[in-house]
Structure formats: C-alpha cells, structure tokens
Amino acid sequence: MKKSFLLLSLGLLSARLASAGDLTGVISFKGTAPAERELTPIKEDPNCAALYPGALPKTKFYAVSASGELADVIVSLKGITGKSTGASAAPVTLDQKGALYVPQIVAIQTGQKLIVKNSDPFIHNVHAKPAANPESNQVQMNGGPDLTYTFDKAEPFLKFQCDVHPWMFAWVSVFDHPYFAVSAPDGKFTIKNVPPGKYTLEAAHRKLGTQTAEIEVKDDGAVQNFTFEPKQ
Ligand SMILES: [Cu+2]
Fold it and tell me: Which DSSP state fits 187?
C-alpha cells in the first residue's frame, strides 16, 4: 500500500517536473523559400574537389520541411542578463563534415564550451569572426585535435567561416542566460524550466530577420508559435 502510494507520488512529481515551465512552439514557413546560393567549385583543394566531383555542398539557409516547418531559427527570451550557467553546462559540438559546418546554426551560453571538430580527411581553417568577442583564426588538420572556444560576451549570430572552403559558414548565437533553443527540422523548439512571468520572446532567422511576441509563462509553461515568410 505504502509502496504504491510512493510510486504514484513519484510518478506525479516527475510528470510535473517534465512539463513545469517549459516554453514550446513550432516555427512555420509560409510561401516559397528563395533559391539557395550557387557555388563555384574550388580548385585550390584537390582533396575536397575529389570528395565532390562536379557538385559542391551548399550552405543551406532555408531548412524547410515537406510540411512547411522551419529549422535553424533561434528562439530566446529577451532582456535577461547575467544569468549564464554556461560554465557548468555540457559542451556543444560544431563539426566539419563534408566541407560543411554541422550544424550550421548553434546557440550557446557565455562561458559554455564550444568544441570544433574536423571529421573530414582534409584540412580546414577555423576562422571565428565575432563582433563583440575576440577574433581567432586556427588551422585544423585532418585528424588533428579538437579546438575549444568559449565566449565571454553575448552576441547574436557570431560567424565562423573556413578560409579554405569559401562556402563554409556557421553562426553561433551567444546568450548570457540559458533560455534559448534552436528550432529542429520539424520546426519545434523547447526552452526548458522558464520561471513564471511575462517576457518578450524573440525568434531570429539568419536571412529572414527577427520577430517578437509578448508572452506569459505560467507554472505549467507556455506555447508560442511563429510564422516566417520570404522577404519581399
Ligand atoms: Cu574548410
């Protein structure tokens, strides 16, 4: 009797913890996505050219699903400062694979480790070009050790590029709080454990701009969706 009561209580508690204060939503895309940029084959790197005979990879900005959801949108609470838990957060990995950054859009906290890997059988040059944080430029050999970055200042869409492969870009948004998420291929996002209150929620896409919504998060969370359209 006692045991089943305990299990029931634990079950209720875990169900409550799982949903408490989670802010969720779906990002949709309406209309026709603009054509992605065409690329000129690179001749300077025969290793890469061998990997892609006749066709090169592309930096893909409009990651729209078959049913019209949009990935790679960074959703975050605005107006929160000095709340970073980045020093104790798990590192985030940015890989270089097939001469592309994977993923292309990343979000981390100030002080959180960003690990950059090279999974390709050739060299890359990892060039971080921040606006608010220090710039850095490092060669990363194939099979070479991972590179580790941390950023002290919040900044949106901090650019990483490869100076060997001119189509290789990644953007890393840095927040000084943990209340952000990147929309998945099905357009969904979840910002976990948001304290109840009123907030401005921002959704930012690298090419389609920024939208905001005034929201109220209650004890059991909140839902807020966004729809992006191609720019005129
Ligand atoms: Cu490269």
Answer: S
Short-list 103, 76, 109, CA closest to 190: 76
pLDDT, tens only, 17-65: 444 589 999 999 999 998 887 666 566 677 777 777 766 667 789 999 9
Among 232, 202, 206, smallest CA distance to 215 is for 202
Q: Strand, helix or coil at 33?
A: coil
Give 123 Cα–ligand 1 centroid separation in angstroms: 7
Instruction: Compute, in angstroms, the gap from residue 115 CA to the centroid of ligand 1.
Output: 16
Residue 23 near residue 201, CB atoms below 8 Å? yes
Domains of the chain in sequence order: 21-228 (2.60.40.420)
The alpha carbon of 133 and the centre of ligand 1 are apart by a number of angstroms equal to: 22
Give the Cα separation of 176 and 181 in Å (integer).
13
> SS3 of 201, please?
strand
